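Render this sequence as a predicted structure.
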Amino acid sequence: MTVFLRALVAILLLSITAIVSASEKEDRQKLKQVGSDILKLEQSIQGDNKEQQQLARELKKTELASAEINSQIRQIEQKLSGLGSELKKLQQQQAALEQSRMEQQELIARQVTAAYRLGNEESIKLLLNQEDPNKISRTLKYYDYFLNARAEKLNQYLKTIEELKAVEQGIANRHAALAANRIDLADQQQKLAESHRLRSEVLTRLDRQISSSQQSLAKLKNERKRLESVLKALEESLAKLTAPASTEPFAKRKGKLPWPVSGKLTQYFGATRTADITWNGWLLKANEGTDVHAIHHGRIIFSDYLRGHGLLVIIDHGDGYMSLYAHNQVMLKVTGDWIRAGEVVAKVGNSGGQRDHALYFEIRHNGRPTNPKYWLTSKG
């Protein structure tokens, strides 16, 4: 390839990159606007009494506070893990340097002892012990080598001492950082406990408000109405966005997709939830903080709090397919992010007013819920 052609290819690549970057920025801005519209839409949906609405706002506030604290705890734990690894490496380095220092010290001690036996005038004594002039010349050369080698070993020894001091200081710094982060962790855990206490109080007050099965049904209908409104708004916006590209479309992965979480299936698609309402997806019971994985590559088109669903992640997989992940503890990705298949997007929680920790999961095609049983592998 000529210089001209290489330059032309480079210019074309830069131009394509600039176009893609501009398109990406524009798409993110569109999704941000959709998020704002959804918030207004959600607030416009009425149906609950004023006290229930107030309690729902309080619940959202406490759950978002808990999510923020959990994110802080996760970051601190990652720092602690990193510091622990660094400390272990430094301690190994310290042990190796200490071993080297002891060996060097022993070698120098032997050389000093040998020099002491020769006396203060080492070279003169060596010369007086030689009779052959050729031997005298060789002896002086060997003696120079000996002195140079001794000086080199001494310098190396001093360098090892300096390295050892630096490593010891590094270890002291890591210990101090670990101690500070452990204090921060304890503080955040205390805040989380208080946030959980406030949440429990709000849920108790909500339970008192929803005293009849008729009120419970109305609550579920309102929650479903909110979700359907969100999905409709997102579907309309998707036509204006760059669709996820793939070498293997979502439809071709039918029956082969991985489970989003390692958990126990407790509610099935189509099962009766209350009178007039059935489950549109699966409820997978799992331990708090369990990783939630994207079932297929795509783009996050919603990553926010939705009443009744808590911290909700919705991923667009292209060709009208979406997957939904609700009741999360924390969300690890934001709206607009591109996601690989199997990537962790959230952590299992109980947000949205749930008592137990579980993931609510749906697959939709052109806005309609479809049974995950036919899409996921037979075993989780």
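Summary. The first strand starts at residue 264 and ends at 267. Residues 15-20 have pLDDT under 50 and may be disordered.
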